[in-house]
Write a structure and sequence with these properties.
Largest sheet: none
Shape: globular
Strand content: under 5%
Mean pLDDT: 83
Number of strands: 0
Number of helices: 21
Low-confidence stretches: 1-17, 538-545
């Protein structure tokens, strides 16, 4: 039997339930709205610079990886329709220590996406005269730019305070625009501006396999495809989560991936030869700081460039809006699991986790200081995101063994094969991000252990009723996993010491991943302990009245 939170209206500081106001379209559009954000404005240009025309292959590999992870999440989302789901699955399977770790990875990813989208909005706005002073030449925000960035973050938070129903309607309207503009751009630019010889002018894959694989993480491809989990984070506010979550998750990936692959093909085909006369690594043309708008102007479609500059506000804005929502829901889930103060669990009269929203604004403000531009954050967030996703295949393997009879509205086909495969793929993406990104991620992980671990220790010492059971035995594999991935990256050829040759490094990552997968499954909590964790912390919030 699952406990229900009794939902009663109240003011900030009073606990109420999350409102179940979101249907299938709202869930799917939450995910699609997250996928189609600043990634479409920059992804095609960044990828072709790193991989040449073979960037198309990079997108296809990235799509396969995301589909594998989305399939696993689709089953888990149907089994456990709870707010902030990605932060909870490892908790059920491996206890408190693993749950705290993956919960931090999830929060870290969600909290830093909105600032990235704000950076993208300000970067594209530099085309307009009034915004030219918002950034220095290196992308660092000026004083006026910082003020604008804080105002935009405040707008994201304010819309979220209006409640999930208003958010869903706002995001749905924005998402229709966000889908229509890229599709129109694809067809309008391709007509009369498509040159097949561009794909072979300097060779299809001028930077080889390393360029193709490196582009997946470092150019923004995985970052662009991220977002399918937003439907899962809103599971606690879905009207029919068991039916709608799998459909929304898989449907959003299909829509987003199709648009991105077509964008890459058209971007390469539409460029004039003069723009990459010195090779793809030196791609350059007027307006390249806003790649699609600059290309539209270059091919004589000035009116389209105006629409694209407007879209450069709407698309990232919509994504930033929904990730602000996700941040508060993940912190809500962390509080439910006992890893964060109960203040994060409190909701206002509209069912909004108000304190989590305030902290998401503060976090965004901090991010504007050390990370001055869009590109500097992308690799970092890609790694944090995929590290968060990697917990789902591990949890899936445990639930398949320990809870075989539990209801599953959607069942992953060939799950015993696809689950470990998705874990291997997730770790390859992390590895391809490069050592320069991963050591920084390591610092952020240590910070998370200090914050959440410190609170867990405090709660245990004080004997608080929701103090988490850390269960280090069930998570004995986790320190080896994190340190092992760091060591392989440090010794590998993607920004590391290059002591491990290409292909051998990926074979090592794959073998290491399989070993961790089966070790984690063998050491996981038993069925009774998993059911007790679910009984204690799986919360299906009743609708507020």
């Amino acid at each position: 039997m699952v406990k229900l939170d009794q939902a009663t209206p109240g003011a900030p500081g009073k606990t109420t339930g999350l409102r179940r106001d979101v249907g299938l379209i709202g869930l799917m559009w939450a995910s699609v709205g997250s996928i189609i954000g600043s990634g479409w404005l920059y992804g095609a240009q960044k990828a072709v610079v790193m991989a040449g025309p073979a960037a198309i292959i990079s997108w296809l590999i990235g799509t396969v990886a995301i589909v594998l992870l989305a399939l696993v999440h689709a089953e888990l989302g149907g089994m456990f329709p709870v707010a902030g789901g990605t932060a909870r699955y490892p908790h059920y399977a491996f206890g408190g220590f693993a749950g705290m770790s993956f919960g931090w990875f999830s929060w870290l990813q969600a909290a830093t996406v909105a600032p990235i989208e704000v950076e993208a909005m300000i970067g594209y706005a530099g085309h307009w005269q009034f915004a030219k002073g918002f950034q220095d030449a290196d992308g660092t925000l000026t004083t006026s730019g910082l003020i604008v960035a804080l105002v935009l973050m405040a707008v994201f938070v304010a819309v979220n305070f209006l409640g999930v129903r208003v958010l869903a309607h706002t995001n749905s309207a924005a998402t229709w625009w966000k889908i229509a503009v890229p599709l129109a751009t694809i067809f309008i630019i391709a007509i009369g501006n498509f040159h097949p010889h561009n794909f072979t002018a300097h060779g299809f894959a001028p930077f080889g396999a390393k360029g193709v694989l490196g582009a997946i993480s470092s150019s923004g491809i995985i970052f662009a495809l991220l977002g399918f989990e937003q439907a899962i984070q809103l599971a606690g506010e879905s009207r029919n989560p068991k039916r709608d979550l799998p459909r929304a998750t898989l449907g959003s990936v299909a829509i987003g991936a199709t648009i991105y692959v077509l964008l890459q093909v058209v971007f390469i085909g539409a460029l004039p030869l003069s723009s990459f006369a010195h090779g793809w690594a030196k791609l350059d043309f007027p307006g390249i700081s806003g790649p699609w708008a600059g290309l539209a102007t270059l091919v004589g479609l000035g009116w389209l460039s105006v629409i694209l500059y407007i879209d450069a506000v709407i698309s990232p804005g919509g994504t930033g809006l929904i990730y602000t929502t996700a941040t508060s829901r993940v912190s809500y889930g962390l509080a439910k699991n006992g890893y964060a103060p109960k203040l994060f669990e409190q909701t206002d009269a509209r069912g909004v986790p108000w304190f989590g929203l305030i902290i998401s604004f503060v976090t965004g403000a901090v991010c504007f200081l050390p990370f001055p531009s869009w590109q500097e954050l992308v690799g970092f967030i890609t790694s944090a995101s995929v590290l968060m996703y990697a917990g789902a295949p591990l949890a899936y393997g445990v639930f398949a063994d320990r809870l075989p009879e539990r209801e599953r509205p959607y069942r992953l086909p060939a799950g015993k094969v696809l689950s470990p495969l998705s874990f291997v793929v997730a770790n390859l993406i992390i590895y391809w991000a490069g050592w320069d990104t991963l050591w920084r991620l390591g610092v952020a992980i240590v910070l998370g252990y200090l914050l959440l671990g410190g609170y867990a220790y405090y709660a245990t010492r004080k004997g608080l009723p929701d103090a988490p059971r850390m269960n280090f035995r069930a998570a004995q594999w986790l320190p080896v996993y994190l340190l092992g991935m760091g060591l392989i990256s440090w010794q590998g050829g993607f920004g590391g010491q290059a002591h491990i040759a290409l292909w051998w490094d990926m074979l090592i990552v794959a073998a290491f991943s399989v070993g961790i997968y089966y070790w984690a499954k063998a050491s996981a909590a038993g069925p009774e302990e998993i059911e007790r964790s679910i009984e204690e912390v799986v919360v299906t919030d009743a609708p507020a009245h």
